[in-house]
Amino acid sequence: MKSLLAILVFTLILSLVPQQVQASEHVILAGGPALRKWENLRVESDRHDRWWANFIHASTMRMDNIRVAYGPDSKIIWLVHRKGYVARAREDGKPYTSWINEQATKRGAKLIWVEGGPSVIRAINSRPDRSITTFDFFGHSNKHCFLLDYSSEIIGACTAWLHEKDLYKIKASVFSPKAICKSWGCHSGESMNAYWRDAIGREIIGARGKTDYTALSKGKMPSISGRWVLRAPR
Predict the structure, then answer these.
(1) Given 11, 39, 120, 198, which is the most exposed site by the fewest CB atoms within 10 A?
(2) Is residue 178 classed exposed, middle or buried when 0-12, 13-18 and 19+ CB atoms within 10 A define those classes?
(3) How far apart are CA 31 and CA 117, in angstroms?
């Protein structure tokens, strides 16, 4: 009887101890740059990615903002489309993937190389339940896709993407109920954010119009020619 009573008391004590809170994580997805051999064939006003590091620098600026807002020990998961940077590194004769690794180490971010939509989904789904507190995408996009590459293998075209109709494959449970999500790519507020809300159960801020990364040279996050929106028509 005494043993049973001791077990009951111990069980009650355990029930009163607060459950361990899952540490929050901040996921940043960065697409790859265009190749100059293709972009230089366009008229000047239509050229992209004169600088190879638009999406990398925007990512690191966002990391710095996260450290200020959520604390210096915030856990950052950085998903980067490796193939695009390998191709641009070959073209420019620079060790871009090594430099990206150095930036991840400098900022204490966990770097995960991704190759296409399925690998992005796997990486996101590997996070613990309710852990993702913020999500940011930096890269080319249109109203239906995150374009992980653009004008890299084919001029003006994409060979690796995350499509709005594949978002249902992402586990909604890995996102915090109050997760803040934002796409810094062009036009993703015109369709994709509605699919994101349906699949993930959280809103994502997207651009209605084009985004412009030239503001990075002034120490500012990408600007927009239209406006930021939460909801897109379906």
Answers:
(1) 11
(2) exposed
(3) 11
Q: Alpha-carbon distance 102 to 85, whole Å?
A: 14
Domains for the chain: give ranges and CATH numbers: 21-229 (3.40.50)
* Side chain identity, residue 90: R
| Assigned token pair, 231 | 């909801």
Q: What is d(CA 184, CA 48) in angstroms, rounded to the nearest whole number?
A: 15
228-231, long-range: CB < 8 A, 24+ apart: 228/189, 229/189, 229/193, 229/205, 230/189, 230/193, 230/203, 230/204, 230/205, 230/206, 231/193, 231/194, 231/197, 231/203
> Considering the entire predicted model, what is its pTM?
0.89
Q: What is the mean pLDDT of each run of 10 residues along the chain (234 residues)?
A: 41 38 86 92 84 97 97 97 97 98 98 97 98 98 96 90 98 97 96 95 96 94 93 64
Residue linked to tokens 């600026």: 61
